[in-house]
Amino acid sequence: MSTASPVPVDPEVTHDTGDPVGEVLVDWYAGAARDLPWREPGTDAWAVLVSEVMLQQTPVARVEPVWRAWLARWPAPADLAAATPAEVIRAWGKLGYPRRALRLREAAVAVTERHGGVVPAEVDELEALPGIGTYTARAVACFGYGRRQPVVDTNVRRVVARLVHGRAEAAPARTSDLVDIAALAPADDARAVRFSVAVMELGALVCVAGNPRCGACPVRDRCRWRLAGYPAHDGPPRRVQRFAGTDRQVRGRLLDVLRAAHEPVQPDALVAAWDDALQRSRCLDSLLVDGLVVQTDDGRFSLPD
DNA sequence: AATGCGTGGAC
DNA sequence: TGTCCAAGCAT
Fold first, then answer.
1. Among all strands, which nt has the closest C1' to A58 (CA)?
2. A48 CB inside 7 Å of strand C
3. Which domains, ranges and CATH numbers included, belong to chain A?
């Protein structure tokens, strides 16, 4: 799992001007940013929160249409709070990790009950919401409310690992990540907010995991990884999670059947989803525990209404 | 703290 | 084809 060789540096692209890294990245972002719907002016904190939850471990292209439909249907937290779990699980579609859909609904309930239907702007209040952790809380405060906040996701950790620490890959998330990135942020608050999204964008478009495009990087001339000659990752290789044949696949298949059915289904109807009875049963149990599935009095299964 | 949790595009 | 990867969180 070695990192592919970076693209050779294009000598025509910008040189180190001596400007602080944070300022350079904000200026780069102005010309390089993708035109994503949740970045449009006027996007409120609820819409930002929904986008951030959907984007957890999920590619942008898959999120866009679901995000639009979701906000058209539930434009405010109170709207989603009034929906049933079955409705949100179906609306989640095939984004993956459907427990996120349940937690997003639970977060909407909490916002409605505890915060008068207004998404809180404080990081500690955001972190107290279901499904909202270290990253998402800061992303909502920063991108939804314009607060200066260190925002660290997998892209940012990879950029800091290379640019600052000279390592090929990011270490697991640490609280020191927040300090590292805060040290690079511009002094001006509005630019600090754009800096947070700019670093993520650099990691998503240029300083990518597999085949970094260093020739297009605005800060390559001060990248410690590049200056050190692109040393290979020296830690233990990261294991990619298997999918085929796992409970995750089986759960997905079972939920697929139940999303399509608009009446509770007999246990027999789930055999088509997965033929191994033991694994099917185990996965059904875990879906029941998670609240993604319920069983009727007569033994049939459905999404939770 | 290591693990489980979906899905599908790219190469 | 199989492998890698994509804006994490909860336990």
1. C6
2. no
3. 37-145 (1.10.340.30), 150-227 (1.10.1670.10), 247-302 (1.10.10)
Structure confidence by residue, pLDDT tens digits, A143-189: 999 999 999 999 999 999 999 999 999 988 888 889 999 999 999 99
Q: Residues A95-121: pLDDT tens digits?
A: 999 999 999 999 999 999 999 999 999
The one catalytic residue in A12, A23, A40, A52 is: A52
Does residue A14 surpass a pLDDT of 70? no
Number of residues that this document lists for chain A? 305
Q: Which residue is nearest to nucleotide B5 (CA to C1')?
A: A97
